[in-house]
UniProtKB/TrEMBL annotation:
Residues 34-372 form the Sulfatase N-terminal domain. One of its GO terms (cellular component) is cytoplasm. One of its GO terms (molecular function) is metal ion binding. Gene3D superfamilies: Alkaline Phosphatase, subunit A (3.40.720.10). InterPro entries: Alkaline_phosphatase_core_sf, IDS, Sulfatase_N. Its cofactor is Ca(2+). This is Iduronate sulfatase. The keyword NAD does not apply. It comes from Siansivirga zeaxanthinifaciens CC-SAMT-1. Belongs to the sulfatase family. The keyword Hydrolase applies. Keywords: Calcium, Hydrolase, Metal-binding, Signal. Pfam families: Sulfatase (PF00884).
Length: 477
């Protein structure tokens, strides 16, 4: 009798403890913060199928977009890589003195800001920087558990291209090489991110894993199979391949970034054949990075991490492919400011689109809110989580700048002022995208628009940020 009682008691205790353990495991599962896969792409235009284009082959991006919220009106806050990335990672607006050009460092321009990866690391996340996240790999080093940069010669694959590169400033602007994907930097990057996923799968910690792709940045170098996806004879120059006289001359530049490459004329327009070759190369590079992203997303699924991981993909700014006879970025026309931005939140997104105007400084507070973290007071952006929850965005504007150019995007209007260091305008530009989506008719000097100009000028100053004209780096005690 005693033995039977003891047996019943032991079994009862076992099931009670099992229930406690199971409840605890379920609680831990529910309370564990979601992972974040953070994909940054250099110089990526929103010239993709899910944005209405139908000529670039990017099946993996298309599939991801079909599971995401697609932002149709996302804008970078500054159209140059280093500044754009530092602004995005801190959620802070560029000013006349902060986040100026490609070569800035977050640690130098805004050291007191708590960056997104640092906030996540402080709150238990494993943070890994892979590839190009900041312009300089060691910038914001305290924010990362690990920083990885490829040691491969990622620029060119062919010996003859490498030789030209060694003897010149930048080498050739294009390369079509019959080589494996992993010979270039982004192919090695994909393999590294896959290994990270396999390692992080074994951890109990949530992760913030980044994938900073170098392409489609110049030079347009990609394996031959991606070039073969396109017929150059079918490639056309953009409809906006013109520089109207009504547009201020200050709006145009000599695309010095491209001019540094071999076989590019130092002045004047590019020959049409060369322009089409560059466009062809850009398309090939987009298809190449699409394949690398696909490998990573496939591994995320294979490891059963999909349902626990937020995936966000963004390009650091737009890029001109002959638009207004310009190449590269460094302007405030829409082609340099508008960017691809998609976010997949498990259980929430399934291919919806929003035309709410979104700025890149909004990414930080949105991710922080999604994982339940308090947003630091150095963040200027506004969370777009309400949009994810099906609510209407209250924001209908964005502000972008580059050097003296400051642009207010409000509804269909794109209003730019060139200002001096006191904030006084010395040139203006206004486009109405409702009637002029290609930005070919500057309305700023037309009498009928002067009241509109006055109102936009006032609003621009109200929205460009309280410290826009303050040199905070050099005015500290």
């Amino acid at each position: 009798m005693k033995q039977q009682f003891l047996k019943i008691f032991v079994l009862s205790l076992f099931f009670t403890l099992s229930g406690v353990c199971q409840t605890t495991a379920q609680k831990n599962l529910k309370t564990k913060k979601p992972n974040i896969l953070f994909i940054a792409v250099d110089d990526l235009r929103p010239e993709l199928n899910f944005y209405g284009a139908n000529h670039i082959k990017s099946p993996n991006l298309d599939k991801l977009a079909g599971e995401s919220l697609i932002f149709e009106r996302a804008y970078c806050n500054v159209p140059v890589c280093g500044a754009s990335r530092a602004s995005l990672m801190t959620g802070a607006r560029p000013t006349r003195y902060r986040f100026i050009d490609a070569h800035i460092k977050k640690d130098e321009d805004f050291p007191e800001a708590i960056s997104l990866p640092y906030l996540l690391k402080q709150n238990g996340y494993q943070t890994i920087s892979n590839g190009k996240i900041y312009h300089y790999g060691q910038d914001d080093a305290e924010a990362w558990n690990e920083i990885w940069e490829s040691k491969t010669l990622w620029t060119f694959a062919l010996p003859e291209s490498q030789e030209i590169r060694e003897k010149t400033k930048r080498g050739l602007p294009v390369e079509m090489a019959d080589v494996p994907d992993s010979l270039y930097r982004d192919g090695q990057l994909a393999l590294k991110v896959i290994k990270d996923l396999q390692k992080l799968k074994q951890s109990n910690k949530p992760f913030f894993l980044t994938m900073g792709l170098a392409k489609p940045h110049l030079p347009f170098a990609a394996p031959k199979k991606y070039w073969d996806l396109y017929d150059r004879d079918k490639i056309e120059l953009p409809k906006s391949y013109v520089q109207p006289e009504t547009t201020p001359k200050e709006a145009f530049h000599n695309f010095g970034e491209l001019r540094q490459y071999e076989n590019i004329p130092k002045k004047r327009d590019l020959p049409d054949a060369l322009a089409k070759e560059l466009i062809h190369g850009y398309y090939a590079c987009v298809s190449y990075i699409d394949a690398q992203i696909g490998l990573v997303l496939d591994e995320l699924k294979r490891l059963d991490l999909e349902d626990d991981t937020i995936v966000i993909l963004w390009g650091d700014h737009g890029w001109n492919l002959g638009d207004h006879k310009l190449w590269c970025k460094h302007v405030t026309f829409e082609k340099a400011l508008r960017t691809p931005l998609i976010i997949k939140v498990p259980g929430k997104t399934k291919g919806e689109k929003t035309d709410a105007i979104t700025e890149y400084i909004d990414i930080y507070p949105s991710l922080a809110e999604l994982v339940g973290l308090e947003i630091p007071n150095t963040v200027d952006g506004k969370s777009f989580v309400p949009i994810l929850n099906g609510q209407k965005s209250e924001k209908n504007w964005a502000v972008s700048k580059f050097k003296d150019m400051v642009t207010l995007i409000k509804g269909d209007l794109f209003y730019t002022e060139w200002t001096d260091n006191k904030g006084v305008a010395y040139q203006r530009m206004l486009f109405d995208h409702k009637t002029d989506p290609l930005e070919l008719d500057n309305l700023a000097e037309k009498p009928a628009y002067q009241e509109t100009i006055k109102a936009l000028s006032k609003e621009l100053r109200e929205k460009w940020g309280k410290n826009f004209l303050v040199d905070t780096k050099n005015s500290k005690p």
